[in-house]
Amino acid sequence: MKISARNALKGKVVDIAKGQIVAKVKVDVGGQFVTSLVSVEAIDDLDLKVGDEVSAIIKSTEVMLAK
Amino acid sequence: MSQGKVEAMLGLRREGRPMVGRDRIELLEAVGIHGSISKAAKAVGLSYKAAWDALNAVNNLLPRPAILGQTGGRQGGGAIVTDDGLALIASFRMMEKRLEKVAQMLAGDGSGDSFSLLWSLGMKTSARNAFRCTVTDIRKGEVNAEVVMRLSAESSLTAIITAESLSDLDITIGREVMALVKSSFVMLAPGAELPRISARNRIVGTISHREDGAVSAELTLDIGDGKSIVAVVTRDSAEEMELTLGSKAVAFFKSSHVILAVD
C-alpha cells in the first residue's frame, strides 16, 4: 500500500479495548508500543484482532518532538 | 441577561438614501396584510404621506419595487407586496434574529462563547477544506459521537466529535453542517483503490492542482459534484507516488480530524 504518510511503523496488535464509538489499539513496534484510537467501525471493517500484523501510520505533521 | 435585555437595531441603506429599519419593514408587512397603503398606514399609526415616503425609501433600497399598485390615488388605492418585497421582509427578519443573538451574546458577562459569536458574524476559518453536508446518521457513545454526513451523491464523511458538542450544536439527522478539515490532516494514496486503512474518510478523485514548495506539496483533488479536497503532504511523498496532474488519487483522513460547525 502506497500512501503519502512518511511514517509507517510495522508491528503486532497486542490489545484492543473497544468503547461504543472509539477503540484503543495497542501495537507492539519492536518492543515499543504505539497506541492508536480508531473508530469501532474501522476495527470491524478491517477485521482487526489481537496478533494481527499492522502498520501504524503517522503523518509527519502529526509527530511532536520533545528534548 | 436578566436585567434589561439589549436590543440591537438593524438598518439597511443604499448609497446614502433614507434608512430602512424595522418600522418600515413593519409597514411593508402591513401593506401585505391590508392590501392598501392607507389601511397599512392607519394600522401602524402613520399618516398616508408618511407611509408613502417610507415605502418609497423601501423601494429605493431594492433594484425592483417592493410594492406595486395605485399608490397615488386619493384613497390610497390597492397595493400588493411584490416577491422582492416579500424577500426583503424575510431577509430583514432573519438578519434581525441573528443580530439579536449577537447582541445577547455581547450583553453577556464577557465569558460568552466567542466562537459562536464570531460564527454568527460570518466567521472565516483557515481550514482549507470546508464542506456543507447533510447529516444522515448519528451514533452516540458516552463521550464520543460519530456523525455521518452526505458530502455528494457518491461520497459521505464521518466525523467523531464529543457527545457534548453534539448536543451543544444541536446536531440532528437531516441538519446541514459544515465539515472542516485542515489540509495537513489529509493523506493521499495513488490510484482509485481505497487503501485498507482505519481512516473512515476515503474519497477518490483526480489531481487538479499541485503546488510544490521546498518541503511540502499542496495538492487539490477534484472529487466530483464541483467539490475538491486540498491536501498538504511532503514533496518527497508527492514525487515518490507520482501524484501528477490528472492522475487518480484517494484522499483520506481520520474522522477525529473533522470539525463540525453549524450556523
UniProtKB/TrEMBL annotation, chain A:
The keyword Ubl conjugation does not apply. Residues 2-67 form the Mop domain. It comes from the Bacteria. The keyword Membrane does not apply. Keywords: Molybdenum. It holds the Pfam family TOBE. NCBIfam families: Mop. This is TOBE domain-containing protein.
From TrEMBL, chain B:
Keywords: Molybdenum, Repeat, Transport. This is TOBE domain-containing protein. Belongs to the ModE family. Residues 124-190, 196-262 form the Mop domain. InterPro entries: Mo/tungstate-bd_C_term_dom, ModE, Molybdate_resp_trans_reg, Mop_domain, Transp-assoc_OB_typ1, WH-like_DNA-bd_sf, WH_DNA-bd_sf. PANTHER family: DNA-BINDING TRANSCRIPTIONAL DUAL REGULATOR MODE (PTHR30432:SF1), TRANSCRIPTIONAL REGULATOR MODE (PTHR30432). Gene3D superfamilies: 2.40.50.100, Winged helix-like DNA-binding domain superfamily/Winged helix DNA-binding domain. The keyword Transport applies.
